[in-house]
Amino acid sequence: MTPESLRAGFPPKALELPAVTASATVSDLGLRTGETIVIQSVEPAGSQGQVLRRIIASDNSCLFNAFGYVTEKSRDQARSLRQLVAQKISADQERFCEAFLAKPNDEYCKWILKDDSWGGAIELSILAEHFQCEIAAYDICTKRRDLHGEGQGYEKRCMLIYDGIHYDALALAADASAAEAEDVTMFQTGAVAELVDVKARSFVEEQHKQRQFTDTGNFTLRCVSCQQGLKGEKEAKAHAEATGHTGFAEY
To answer: EC number(s) on record (predicted)?
Structure first.
């Protein structure tokens, strides 16, 4: 406990703590009988503030641009990150085989380079490995957190939030009016990251209560290529596999 976190009197003033010994008692603090002690929790450096959602454009590249925001404070990193992912997949065809990718390696590489192709868990795992950082991806609908890069000894963690069809960035800021330039988006793994995780989970819980998510099992989509109406993620995937169309818009 630090002196700033232990207060007494009216108005409450910080107590100067004596050296701790085996025989130390409350009376050593100079308190009177019946006096109230106020114990104030002090957050460690790097975890102060509140978690905020930083909006990323809905242009089918949201995962990449959200990651660009939390790493570079840039919403325009999709092209370079797509190229990086394609290079990593192409360079390791044994790991990224057809059974893993659900399509041939070279076909997947061409597909992920397209501006209208959505990224997902495969891309996040590659980005975590390349940038040597944990990526915590929070799902508003399920309130689940997927931690890509977990257990690899990485020293930093960043956070994204997913609403069922779209990724945004999560940042720690002093308050809701704080400028984005002051955002903290990378956190030391360990105690700091876990404290921020508690705040992020609380934020996700509130987003869930406000139904800030899309039910991918029942939402309606329209293919931007042929205008066919579709219901749910399964129909969208089946349509994409049958036609090669990958652009969809919610309606």
So the answer is: 3.4.19.12
Closest CA to 89 of 77, 102, 78: 102
Give 211-244 pLDDT, tens digit per residue: 999 876 666 778 888 888 877 677 777 888 888 8
40 pLDDT band (50/70/90 cuts)? low
Question: What is the pTM (predicted TM-score) of this model?
Answer: 0.75
205/109 same-domain check: yes
Confidence check: pLDDT of 113 > 60: yes
> 54 and 170: one domain?
yes
Long-range CB contacts for residues 188-192, cutoff 8 Å, separation at least 24: 188/46, 188/155, 188/156, 188/157, 189/134, 189/154, 189/155, 189/156, 189/157, 191/44, 192/44, 192/45, 192/46, 192/47
Give catalytic residue positions: 59, 62, 166, 245
Please give the Cα distance from 176 to 97 (Å, whole number): 44
Helix, strand, coil abundance in the chain, percent, nearest 5:
35, 20, 45
For residue 3, is pLDDT > 50?
no
